[in-house]
Design brief:
Structural class: alpha/beta
Shape: elongated
CATH superfamily of the largest domain: NAD(P)-binding Rossmann-like Domain
CATH architecture of the largest domain: 3-Layer(aba) Sandwich
Number of helices: 24
Strand content: 5-15%
Distance between the termini: 92 Å
Helix content: 40-55%
CATH topology of the largest domain: Rossmann fold
Strand order of the largest sheet: 10-9-8-11-12-13-18-22-21
Length: 651
């Protein structure tokens, strides 16, 4: 009964489709009949009267064609949206028509029956039917497109952006097809530019290739272009920066398409065309890191993320949630930050068990309660202070929140049998000039000694500057540009390594998955970027001109900052990991067991507020540290604190 009911539903659905498509069916039938009559006339005009009277043969041919059309679902296609991707269906249908009609002719000939249809007629009929069915659909699509343009409101027409596409390759063609397909989306494509000379004076879907990239200033001026869209799915960084430099000299907005994989594996959509982001200026392709081992490490286990409300911590929470842990502990001392990330994650993964833990990681008794209750298997320690100049004025907090917290959470992870503990470190830990960098170096030493003492695998991951993280240079530049400037840069030669937030989080999970214990993982982040170049490119991305529309001001190197950051020191041994973009470092001469008495001394000095002795102990522990001399506090004038001027800070 169930199979019978299913069959009835299928038949009813098919009949409904035939009724909905009745006008198209009539047109297609007329095309097939005309194709058959024309094939007979062209093949043997002297016998056309005979063919005209052979309705049986015509009905047989039409029936075969209709059966094939139904099998391939050609009538389910909407005429106005027919494209090259649907042509293959018509080609397959034509092949089946030819094969079946030929079989009928051969079978009739073998039985010596009177069958006036010649093989040449069969072939020509198939060809004409194929061309006719496809042709009426293309004609209908063209008529619909013309009608849409005629009916488009004048106000909307004036709002459409005049666009030039950079790159007349496969990706450019697909983007143009999508724009033309969605003609009322706000783009009016006036042409392509491409440096490939073989494409000059070519036309793609009626849109001409106007010239090379160097011709953009002239083209933009003559055609009054509003936007240029980079439609090269793999645009080399040198070409990208050259395009950006050219566009920076003309009043035009630059946008681009997604990556090659997103564009070619999915159908491109106009809505995916986006503004250029800072991550596009890294000078390298973002590193894809996480593999199946990360899934094995996290899936079904209890995972703790400290500093879960921060930029890196929140991304770690998102990525860990993707791998379906049994419990995800969000440890954060900022109530608002914890509330925000908890709401976000619960909305995205409502089926997972999330536990928001409002706690200070330096509070051993509170963190002990968390470990005792949940017993996490994986600990990702992202809680830390990171702003160099701020920490230089709050040295004791660096010891408390960076050093003490690492010791507390690390020791508890070992005592409660965690499998893996990952410390989020920094490139500022290499030959540190700041207290913040030195505190991270001490944290690395703690992790290495804990790894020697316990079965838990302790390891560290060393980051460069993370683009877009809270309080980093990029959001600061964005805010300054939004306010009209000036954009402040400390020094014209200052360089930094940059990575994206997803890269940073992925590196942590990759390290946790591949680590054996005791390693310091370092990501190959390509060449360092001059901060002033980053500022200039951000101004250009905003449609403004550096030092004309937005002034760039140099304020001088701040306390604790270095001109150049390093990812490893000469005393560290770097080795390749199984991932070509990740290196493994080992500290040259770790202090061993004496690290914890030194840490206790630092904690005591922090409680006393003794900054000078803290720096002295750090210098003894880290010989290659290069601290600036400790300055006395600014004098109090009439009961009011007088801050240092920029000149005083730089002196």
């Amino acid at each position: 009964m169930e199979s019978k009911s299913t069959a009835l539903i299928g038949i009813r659905s098919w009949l409904e489709l035939l009724w909905i498509k009745r006008y198209q069916i009539c047109v297609d039938t007329a095309v097939m009949c005309s194709a058959f009559r024309l094939a007979c006339l062209l093949t043997d005009g002297s016998r056309s009267q005979i063919y005209a009277r052979r309705w049986k043969e015509l009905a047989c041919v039409i029936l075969v064609q209709w059966i094939v059309i139904q099998l391939f679902g050609i009538h389910r296609l909407l005429w106005r949206y027919v494209s090259l991707s649907e042509v293959s269906l018509f080609v397959k249908a034509a092949a089946w028509w030819l094969a079946l009609d030929t079989l009928i002719v051969v079978a009739a000939a073998n039985k010596s029956e009177t069958w006036p249809i010649q093989a040449s007629i069969v072939f020509l009929n198939v060809l004409l039917t194929f061309a006719g069915l496809l042709g009426v659909r293309v004609l209908w699509k063209m008529m619909c497109s013309i009608n849409d343009r005629q009916n488009e409101p004048l106000s909307h027409e004036h709002q459409r952006k005049r666009v030039v596409l950079i790159g007349a390759g496969e990706a450019g063609e697909r983007v143009l097809s999508e724009i033309l397909h969605e003609g009322a989306r706000g783009f009016d494509v006036r042409g392509f530019v491409d440096d490939d000379r073989s494409k000059r004076r070519s036309v793609i879907h009626g849109v001409p290739v106007l010239g090379s990239v160097s011709d953009l200033p002239t083209i933009v001026k003559e055609l009054e272009i509003d936007h240029v869209i980079i439609t090269m799915a793999q645009c080399p960084q040198d070409d990208f920066r050259r395009i950006l430099a050219i566009c920076g000299q003309i009043p035009v907005r630059v946008r681009l398409i997604p990556s090659l994989n997103e564009l070619l594996q999915d159908n491109p959509r106009v809505s995916r065309i986006r503004d250029i982001g800072i991550a596009d200026l890294l000078g390298r392709e973002p590193v894809q890191l996480v593999d199946d081992r990360a899934r094995e490490l996290i899936s079904g286990k209890c995972v703790m993320v400290t500093g879960a409300g921060g930029s890196i911590g929140a991304e770690l929470v998102r990525r860990a949630a993707h791998y379906k842990p049994s419990t995800l502990l969000l440890v954060e001392r900022s109530e608002f930050a914890l509330f925000t990330v908890d709401n976000e994650i619960r909305a995205a993964w409502p089926e997972l068990n999330f536990v928001p833990v409002l706690a200070d990681v330096t509070n051993r008794s509170r963190i002990t309660q968390v470990f005792e209750q949940y017993g996490p298997h994986v600990v990702l320690h992202a809680a830390a202070h990171k702003h160099v100049p701020l920490i230089e004025n709050n040295v004791t907090e660096a010891i408390t929140n960076n050093v003490l917290a690492t010791q507390v959470v690390g020791e508890l992870a070992a005592q409660w049998g965690a499998e893996v503990f990952v410390l989020i470190s920094s490139d500022k830990a290499v030959r540190p000039k700041s207290v913040m960098g030195a505190s991270k170096r001490v944290s690395e030493l703690i992790v290495q000694e804990l790894n020697r003492r316990y079965r838990t695998q302790f390891l560290a991951v060393r980051f460069g500057n993370v683009i877009g993280s809270a309080g980093s240079v990029v959001p600061n530049f964005e805010e300054q540009i939004r306010k009209g400037g000036p954009v402040t840069v400390t020094h014209p030669e200052m360089q930094r390594y940059f990575m994206t937030i997803p890269e940073a989080a992925a590196l942590v999970l990759e390290a946790a998955a591949m680590g054996q214990g005791g390693e310091i993982f370092v990501l190959d982040m390509g060449k360092p970027v001059r901060v002033v170049d980053l500022a200039k490119e951000m101004i250009l991305l905003s449609g403004l001109r550096p030092n004309e529309d937005i002034e760039i001001v140099y304020t001088g190197i701040r306390p604790g900052e270095k001109l150049f950051e390093e990812l490893s020191s000469s005393s560290e041994r770097l080795a390749k990991s199984r991932h070509p973009k990740i290196y493994i470092g080992q500290l040259g001469d770790p202090p061993g067991e004496k690290i914890f008495p030194i840490v206790e001394q630092l904690i005591q000095l922090s409680g006393q507020g003794n900054v000078a002795d803290i720096k002295r102990v750090l210098q003894e522990l880290i010989p290659d540290a290069q601290f600036e001399p400790t300055k006395s506090p600014a004098p109090v004038v009439s009961g009011t604190y007088r801050p240092h001027t920029i000149a005083e800070s730089a002196s």
